[in-house]
Design brief:
This protein is an alpha/beta fold. It is 33% helix and 23% strand. The chain has two domains: 215 residues, Nucleotidyltransferase, domain 5 (2-Layer Sandwich); 192 residues, 2-Layer Sandwich (Nucleotidyltransferase, domain 5), CATH 3.30.420. The protein has 14 helices and 18 strands.
């Protein structure tokens, strides 16, 4: 039996590279799922290269904003996701210890050693290995490595754990064999906890600092990629999530792992899905939205709102037989090529659940759907990492039989663009 009631909400946060997003998401049957939203940029020179404490400060600022926007919401649990495979080397215990500078996902990393058995290689251990080799004194001081969301959860009162999305993900994190191959001390890596389980409660100190209730349950959240898949609602074979921001990933949920030959070379990638037993086949477009951002900067239009600039670009290229603006055409061509790659591999896509920053533009959604010949479904909560967090917490609270079932309650498609069939 679940314990949620009218007005119940989940406090969700996502630790991004340059900012933290947070939301209060209704799970009590209200008309709107998204009750309040906040984005807090890390307030320090260097932004993403700053200390982990910036994430904590941004979280507390976000909570204050959310409480002001939705004071009547009854918060039932907290769940945090974060950019992976970022790691925080921690000196001392998780609650009060000193966080050393984070090993960000964009940091240099050593090549992975031969796996020996032809299996998958860890996405995380190369960063720790680089750290050990290049900062041996700090490595020696490190008592434990935590992902960014695990560190922030621990600062708030959770147990220090590594959150494993599904059992299939074990090889992509770490095991004794891979730790030995990288010459890493296994004692520095915490035990695994399943996604969507209770890992602790908000401490008295954190409650005082954040205006929260001491004892609030903390639910295990995973990497942003995993939580975004869940929060898009693409949790059944054949459903597709197009997560589009500065970069873009088109992710197809499939029933079985694809043949090795199909994903032997880029641009196709395959990883286990966020739902146990399913798989994800994807094409990643590393620039996508950043192409638009560069154009904006190069033309001195960085202060013009995105939607206004898109409208100007569309109008400039308007007219019978006129081509799409070259910048928009380049982005759209990348998406079309990705869809063609998926089709040739046996994964045709006719509609996608569009999420991320790009999905916030109605004009771009319409243009993209038309140019790519694909229906775009935009959910109410386009920052789908947050929706995924809400689903994980809903499952933990006992209101759904599985995280996938919880996603179906949380995810509401708000708008359709392009073809209807």
């Amino acid at each position: 039996m679940g314990k949620t009631r009218k007005g119940s909400a989940i406090l969700c946060a996502d630790v991004g590279t340059t900012s933290l997003k947070a939301a209060l998401i209704d799970i009590g049957g209200g008309e709107k799922r998204l009750l309040a939203f906040s984005r807090e940029t890390y307030q320090a020179s260097g932004g993403a290269a700053g200390s982990a404490e910036l994430w904590e400060a941004a979280f507390y600022r976000a909570v204050k904003v959310l409480r002001g926007l939705a004071p009547a919401a009854s918060i039932e649990a907290l769940c945090i996701s974060g950019n992976g495979p970022t790691l925080v080397p921690l000196e001392g215990n998780a609650l009060t210890g000193r966080a050393l500078p984070p090993l960000h996902w964009f940091s240099p990393k050593l090549p992975a050693p031969p796996s020996g058995d032809g299996g998958a290689r860890s996405l995380f251990l190369p960063y720790a290995a680089y750290f050990r080799q290049n900062e041996p004194q700090n490595y020696a001081k490190t008592d434990i490595f935590l992902s960014c969301q695990e560190w922030l959860s621990a600062r708030l009162g959770a147990a220090p754990v590594t959150v494993l999305p599904t059992a299939y993900y074990r090889p992509y994190y770490y095991d004794e064999k891979q730790l030995a191959a990288f010459s890493l001390d296994s004692r520095k890596f915490p035990p695994f906890a399943p996604l969507g389980t209770f890992i602790g409660h908000v401490s008295t100190k954190a409650a005082r600092l954040g205006g929260l209730v001491a004892g609030l349950p903390i639910v295990s959240g995973g990497p942003d990629f995993i939580m975004a898949l869940l929060g898009s609602g693409a949790v059944e074979p054949g459903l597709v999530c197009d997560r589009a921001g500065s970069s873009e990933g088109i992710n197809v949920c499939v029933k079985e792992a694809p043949p090795a030959a199909a994903v032997a070379a880029p641009p196709l990638r395959s990883l286990p899905h966020a739902v146990e037993g399913l798989w994800n086949v994807s094409v990643v477009l590393p620039e996508s939205g950043s192409i638009f951002d560069r154009y904006r900067l190069e033309t001195g239009q960085q202060d013009i709102p995105y939607e206004e600039m898109l409208k100007n670009m569309a109008c400039a290229a308007a007219g019978e037989g006129a081509a799409l603006h070259p910048v928009l055409q380049k982005i759209a061509d990348g998406v079309r090529l990705a869809l063609e790659t998926l089709r040739k591999a046996g994964y045709p896509v006719s509609e996608m659940r569009h999420s991320g920053g790009q999905a916030k533009s109605r004009l771009w959604n319409s243009l993209k759907a038309d140019v790519c010949g694909c229906t775009l479904l935009v959910p109410e909560i386009v920052d789908t990492e947050l929706a995924g967090n809400a689903a994980a917490a809903t499952f933990a609270l006992g209101d759904s039989r599985s995280i996938a079932a919880a996603c179906k309650k949380i995810v509401v498609i708000k708008t359709r663009y392009g073809r209807t069939a």
